[in-house]
Write a structure and sequence with these properties.
CATH architecture of chain B: 3-Layer(aba) Sandwich
Oligomer: heterodimer
Structural class of chain B: alpha/beta
Strand order of the largest sheet of chain A: 16-17-15-18-14-13-19-12-20
CATH class of chain B: Alpha Beta
Helix content of chain B: 25-40%
Strand content of chain A: 5-15%
Number of domains of chain B: 1
Number of helices of chain A: 24
Order of helices and strands of chain B: EEEHEEHEHHHEHEEE
Number of domains of chain A: 5
């Protein structure tokens, strides 16, 4: 015979359908979202991963200052370190030889001239010629006639040859001696002393040009476009729409950029003054997000684009060619540790090989550290993990709501339970009975949620990712792990939380149930409460009686307020950052030059009156003691720091005079991100060399635009061994038009700062608005369920006070006001909790990335976040009032024992 | 009739400690035969409900023992006690304790489910005169009807002992007599031993065995050879 208690389940579902509907909708929504996120993510990740081999993704890339010679490429391929000692000796000897040769030549000329002159004067004296002018004319004549032959004769003399040999020998010895003297420094600088095993690679030319893109053909630059050739064999693109360019007036551009700026296949765009027809929309395997530089805080699908031209069209462009090379390891590293180790070993080899070839590394980026490649998959991963955890917390809250509901039901049904236990029902049978409802509801939620997850929500997740990132076309992946995460985990959460509460509740003996003696502990003395009015004391008693319910209610309020702080705060932070962007640049224009001298060796100057020279270099600050939520972000876990050398009396950045050597000012962003204070010593190190600098923080410069260090120019030159006249660029209030574009590396304006917020608002702005309102509904639903429990628990008392003659309004005020006070007080407290938690969460999140971005919540948002929650509660209390009105008076009479 | 079917020996039970200690059972001895209709009679505080609870395995004595068919309850752990209640006992309380969202038939099935040898549910419903109400829910029934359902739930198990704790305590005279008649019927029809706790002196006339309790001890232990049907009881 089937347990007849099972028949209670559908009846209970039907009788309390609105409560279970809210719970099931919750579960379906939560599970559907997690399922959709996971399935969408796995579909995306699968497409991204398959591109790794199908589209020949590089293992890394490096850019050189000029084109590498075939020998250099061959040497780089071996992965071996170059013979740096020999290089320095050869270089030294070359210089020494030149100097010796010059000295010998000078000396020889002098001696031959002197011998001729002495000979002529001796002859003149013998002939009695005393007039100096006459003597000089003889000397000149003799010089002209005999100098070359005399020089030749001298050169051929054994004496001269011996002297030359000796001079060269001495100079060579001096060079070797000097190299050996400085060898320990050189060894340290280039990591030569370390044990080293080579990592052999295959190197591919993968040159590109950064051009200006005018995508609406209005003559104003809209974006920077990085152009690669269509015949490239590495880092290929997949086409989402259209095809590759086939002739010189065709171009294929990034799909995400095109969508963002509204360009379609067939449209015409202007690149560096020339019009091209867009024939295809693509996704480059190494540009899944539009990160122009690896240190960019955020990608910029508005202002940056990657594109493909035919080799012919590419060669017709005139801007600076970036000598970028991609490489593939001959044997693939396994795992992240090996990836990091191989990349480091390869870099050491690359540094020495380029050094001995008189070339220079401008950039080096192993692909596992590439933001453009890893930001999207990492973010997708982070999204689903974050969403997963968030949903699990909500499911746990629902499980607690369930547990409390069941606990109240058990209280209400104590006599029945006592009778059943007395009649022979085992504890296990009753536990199974009371567990069945949460399990059934969770299973129903999981089933419906999964169906929605694999259909509607998956599509939404994929669409969301596809709209934000430049991803290849996703393929549908059926994910067993998603099923586990969306069904097993919620079920386990629901199961164990309820099991714990129910088992604890049913521990009591049948007799205790029959007697309604359900408190495990001895009854404590009644709390003394102040001599307030009767109704106030009554309310306080209600509060005390429902403490466990209010604890869950408070937790629900805190969770809701945290979510609202997130929703309001993120929008506010973005807007705040965007609004303050103009204040975050030192100058309206910041020109970074390729070198301080032009190709003719003259210092680059400008007639712009507001222009002011500055020096700068990029160093790294180790992010020690910070956990890494995400691997492979930023610059290998270290923060990129820009160090500025500022002119005395600068009109752009004011530094107090007399800063001691080795003392610096740091940006407020640097201070806030790493909690630095005056007097702290920061150690910055070179990215590609084993050099570090200890600098003492003297004070702070109010600059939130980046992680920066400021020192005066002379101190800068001294610290970094620069020449006195060396500099890196110009600050200017106006645009500088008299510097050759070839000499300009980058120009930074306020727009570059605000692009972060523009991109973020584009990516997440709409989502946040929906999220905000979803949170309000969620918060109201949570409070609805919890408030319902409180009313249900007090049904008997409410019925009794109705019998006593209290009016519905009075009863409403008795039972609703305590909840209203709790909700109101804890909403305000939760705002503080939520705000400070968001500060912490935001900071922890930023520690995984380069740059800084302060969390900001406007006072209006703070008020609104509280107000929205209270409005949500106001609706709930209206429902509560009707609920109270509906409680019949016979509840108190029928259940009286 | 099987003698010593149920044996109560030196049963003691007290509540509270120190000065507040109250001896509820102070050494109680008696036996009940199988199939007997036994009434435990006594005023409030005489310990009759406590005694019934101990016999029912839902309370434990401080000393002494209860044995049923020679099995001592004190030797049983919680699980075995549950099995004991499940196999041998049916309970009827003063309050009906029906499951509000199950109808009459389903509430009786709740009892039938527990038994290896349940009676036919429909037959029990007919015996209890509930055939017209079997699809009604408890809140649609009168107190007497609810108590019938509660008896049905206990009887349908076909229990060795039917434990009744003031089953008419909340009912009017007429309904009480009807309920008593039903319990009498069940006793004779299904052969269940009935142990009924009551403070109503009149009920002793329908019993085979009357045990009067006062202050935690058995004052009288009488066999009633002239029992009268419940329908003839007056009080």
């Amino acid at each position: 015979m089937r347990n007849p208690l099972i028949k209670r389940i559908p009846k209970e579902l039907a009788s309390d359908w609105h409560k279970y509907l809210v719970i099931i909708l919750f579960m379906v929504g939560m599970i559907g979202v997690i399922s959709g996120m996971y399935v969408g993510r796995e579909s995306m990740v699968s497409a991204i991963e398959s591109g790794r081999t199908e589209l020949n993704l590089e293992d890394g890339s490096f850019e050189l200052s000029h084109r590498a010679s075939p020998e250099l490429l061959e040497n780089i391929s071996t992965g071996e370190k170059a013979d740096v000692r020999q290089y320095f000796i050869d270089k030294g000897m070359e210089e020494a030889d030149k100097e010796v040769a010059d000295a010998i030549e000078e000396e020889l000329n002098e001696q031959v001239s002197k011998a001729i002159e002495d000979g002529v004067r001796a002859q003149c004296a013998a002939l009695g010629v005393a007039d100096e002018d006459t003597i000089q004319s003889y000397i000149d004549a003799a010089m002209e006639e005999n100098f070359d032959s005399a020089l030749e004769e001298a050169r051929n003399s054994e004496e001269f040859k011996d002297a030359v040999e000796e001079a060269y020998s001495k100079a060579h010895d001096a060079v070797i001696e000097a190299v050996d003297e400085e060898w320990s420094d050189i060894e340290e600088e280039y990591n030569l002393a370390e044990d080293f095993s080579p990592v052999s690679v295959t190197v591919y030319e993968h040159f590109y040009r950064n051009e200006s893109e005018d995508n609406d053909n209005d003559g104003v630059e809209d974006a920077t476009v990085r152009i690669f050739k269509s015949d490239s064999v590495i880092d290929l693109a997949s086409f989402i729409e259209g095809r590759a360019p086939e002739n010189t007036n065709e171009i294929a551009i990034d799909r995400n950029h095109a969508d963002t700026v509204g360009v379609k296949v067939g449209d015409k765009i202007t690149v560096s003054g020339r019009e091209y027809e867009v024939t295809g929309l693509l996704s480059y395997v190494n540009y899944l997000t539009m990160h122009e530089s690896n240190t960019d805080l955020m990608f910029d699908a508005f202002g940056f684009d990657v594109a493909m031209l035919t080799p012919e069209a590419f060669n017709e462009l005139t801007s600076r060619l970036h000598y970028n090379y991609s490489f593939l390891y001959d044997v693939k590293p396994e795992g992240k540790i090996e990836q990091a180790d191989w990349s480091e070993r390869f870099l050491k080899s690359l540094i020495t090989q380029t050094l001995v070839d008189d070339n220079e590394i401008k950039d080096y980026l192993p692909v596992y550290l590439s933001q453009a490649r890893n930001f999207a998959p990492s973010d997708i991963e982070g999204d689903s993990t974050g969403t997963g955890i968030f949903c699990y917390i909500l499911i746990a809250v629902i499980a607690f709501i369930f547990a409390i509901t069941i606990s109240n039901t058990i209280d209400k049904e104590a006599s029945v339970i006592g009778t059943l236990r007395a009649s022979g029902y085992s504890k296990g049978e009753l536990i199974v009975h009371y567990m069945s409802m949460p399990v059934i509801v969770t299973l129903a939620g999981a089933a419906l949620g999964n169906i929605l997850g694999y259909t509607a929500f998956r599509g939404m997740a994929v669409k969301m990712y596809f709209n934000t990132y430049s991803l290849p076309i996703p393929r549908l992946v059926w994910s067993p792990s998603a099923l586990v995460k969306t069904t097993v985990i919620p079920l386990l959460l629901m199961f164990f939380i309820n099991l714990f509460v129910i088992v604890k509740k049913l521990q009591l003996s049948p007799l205790k149930f029959l007697r309604h003696d359900l408190s495990k502990t001895k009854r404590t003395k009644a709390r003394r409460i102040p001599a307030w009015s009767f109704l106030s004391r009554f309310r306080l008693r209600i509060l005390f009686q429902n403490i466990p319910n209010y604890v869950v209610l408070i937790f629900g309020v805190i969770l809701s307020e945290l979510m609202l702080c997130f929703a309001f705060g993120l929008t506010d932070s973005l807007n705040n950052y965007g609004e303050r962007a103009p204040e975050m640049v030192f100058a309206d224009y910041q020109y970074m030059l390729m070198d301080y001298k032009d190709s003719d060796g003259n210092a680059i100057v400008t007639d712009e009156e507001t222009a002011e020279r500055f020096s700068c270099t990029n160093l790294m600050y180790p992010k020690e003691n910070t956990s890494s939520m995400r691997d492979g972000m930023g610059s290998g876990g270290d923060e990129s720091v820009t160090v500025y050398g500022i002119s005395d009396g600068s009109s752009y950045i004011s530094l107090p005079g007399g800063i001691p050597e080795g003392h610096v000012y740091i940006s407020t962003a640097f201070r806030d991100k790493f909690y630095l204070k005056s007097g702290d010593v920061i150690t910055l190190h070179e990215e590609y060399e084993n050099k570090s600098y200890d600098l003492t923080v003297e004070g702070f410069t109010d600059y939130e635009g980046g992680i920066a260090v400021f020192m005066d120019n002379s101190s800068f030159n001294e610290t970094f061994g620069k020449k006195d006249d060396e500099f890196s660029g110009y600050f200017s209030r106006n645009e500088i038009t008299d510097i050759d574009e070839q000499d300009i590396a980058t120009v930074i304006t306020a727009d570059d700062i605000s692009k972060v917020t523009t991109q973020l608002m584009h990516s997440v702005g709409g989502f946040i608005e929906i999220f905000k309102y979803a949170m309000i509904i969620l918060a109201a639903a949570l409070i609805y369920l919890l408030a319902k429990i409180i009313i249900e628990r007090n049904e008997h008392s409410i019925s009794m006070v109705k019998i006593l003659g209290f009016k519905n309004g009075e009863i409403g005020s008795l039972y609703i006001i305590p909840t209203a006070i709790v909700v109101a007080v804890f909403t305000v407290i939760s705002l503080a909790v939520g705000y400070f938690m968001m500060l912490w969460i935001f900071h922890a999140f930023l520690m995984q990335m380069d740059g800084y971005f302060a969390f900001y919540m406007s006072p209006l948002s703070m008020v609104l976040s509280v107000l929205y929650l209270l409005i949500g509660y106001a609706f709930v209390s209206v429902i509560d009032f009707f609920r109270i009105k509906k409680i019949p008076m016979d509840v108190a009479l029928k259940n009286a024992d | 009739m099987e003698e010593n079917f149920l044996e109560i020996k030196d049963l003691k039970k007290s509540f509270g400690t120190g000065e507040a200690k109250q001896d509820v059972l102070r050494g109680m001895n008696f036996t009940v035969s199988k199939g007997e209709f036994c009434v435990l009679l006594g005023p409030s505080g005489s310990g009759k409900s406590t005694l019934l609870n101990i016999i029912g395995g839902i309370d434990t004595p401080d000393s002494g023992f209860v044995s049923i068919k020679g099995d001592k309850l004190e030797d049983m752990d919680e699980k075995q006690l549950t099995v004991y209640r499940r196999k041998h006992l049916g309970y009827v309380f003063q309050m009906y304790n029906l499951i509000p969202n199950l109808n009459v038939k389903e509430n009786i099935e709740v009892g039938a489910y527990l038994s290896d040898k349940p009676l036919d549910v429909e037959e029990v419903i007919t015996t209890l005169g509930l055939q017209d109400h079997k699809y009604k829910y408890p809140n649609q029934l009168s107190g007497g009807q609810q108590q019938r359902v509660s008896i049905g739930r206990a009887v349908v198990k076909n229990p060795d002992i039917l434990m009744c704790d003031e089953p008419t305590g909340a009912l009017d005279y007429k309904t009480s007599k009807e309920i008593l008649a039903l319990i009498e019927d069940c006793n004779s029809k299904y052969g269940s031993t009935v142990i009924m706790v009551t403070h109503n002196e009149a009920i002793k006339y329908m019993a085979d065995h009357v045990i009067k309790l006062r202050d935690g001890v058995v004052r009288h232990n009488d066999i009633n050879s002239n029992k009268i049907p419940a329908s003839e009881l007056e009080w």
